[in-house]
Amino acid sequence: MAPARPRRRQRRQGRPRQRRRGLPWRGLLVTGLAAGLVWLSRGWWWPAPPQPQMILVLGGDVAREQVAAELARQRGLPVVVSGGSNPEYAQWLFGQREGLPADQVLLDYRAQDTVSNFTSLVDDLRRARIRHALLVTSSDHMPRALLVGRLVAGSRGIHLTPVAVSCGGRCIDEPRTKLWRDGLRSVLWVLSGHDLRGWAAAHLPRVQVPAGPDPAAR
Questions:
Q1: Which residue of 40, 82, 157, 169 is surrounded by the most CB atoms within 10 Å?
Q2: Is the pLDDT at 201 greater than 50, yes or no?
Q3: How crowded is residue 34: how many other Cβ atoms within 10 Å of its Cβ?
Q4: How many CB atoms lie within 10 A of CB 73?
């Protein structure tokens, strides 16, 4: 007799493989739109801020400090000058010219730019229970300052009311790239607590641009 053929093993029919689903972009889009609608409608449900409790003036032009000094005298509000003029001029302006007491004015020189105008101060303001501040800066600087301020100070529950100082014939149209760059830095600071500019300066190598030919040698 011929030997029996070996039986073929029957393959077990397993469950059909499920295709990997792509990124849930639809869900993310819907969530983002919903969050945007909630944020845009916050005026209907967000508690109204109290009356202004202080004046925050951003340095860069003495005209800003002059307007802030007049506001402080008229309204009796404390003033914080972030990255302003030298102490001698500021003390003369607020103290002698406007007659404000020394404890009504705080000169803070920690800021290096618009983003650090806010990141260096907002935690101090929150500890002081500040919820509403008048923001004083030049009219051409206000869009970028207000964007950064609403992101950084807004993350601490601080409302900002803009007080634009006319720049007259000295206005400079800021490029949109500068606006979005500082906006991105502000978002990253809110999420991580670190400034992108400071991190880049500490970790990224500096690129040295070779010097061009000396014009005097021509």
A1: 82
A2: yes
A3: 10
A4: 16
d(CA 218, CA 211): 15
Tally of CB atoms within 10 A around 106: 14
d(CA 23, CA 31): 14
pLDDT band of residue 21 (cuts 50, 70, 90) is low
Residue whose structure tokens are 């295709």:
19
Could you name the CATH architecture of 53-204?
Answer: 3-Layer(aba) Sandwich (3.40)
Q: Strand (E) positions, the chain?
A: 54-58, 79-82, 105-108, 132-138, 159-165
pTM of the model: 0.74
What is the overall mean pLDDT for the chain?
83
Sign of the Cα torsion 130, 132, 134, 135 reads: positive
Q: Delimit the domains of the chain by residue range.
A: 53-204
Cα separation, 76 vs 103, whole angstroms? 12
pLDDT per residue as tens digits for the range 137-193: 999 999 999 999 999 999 999 999 999 999 888 888 899 999 999 999 999 999 999
> What angle is formed at CA 77 by the lines to CA 74 and CA 82, rounded to 5 degrees?
115
Residue 1 banded pLDDT, cuts 50, 70, 90 = low
Report the percent of the chain where pLDDT is more than 90: 62
How is residue 117 written in tokens?
């105008």
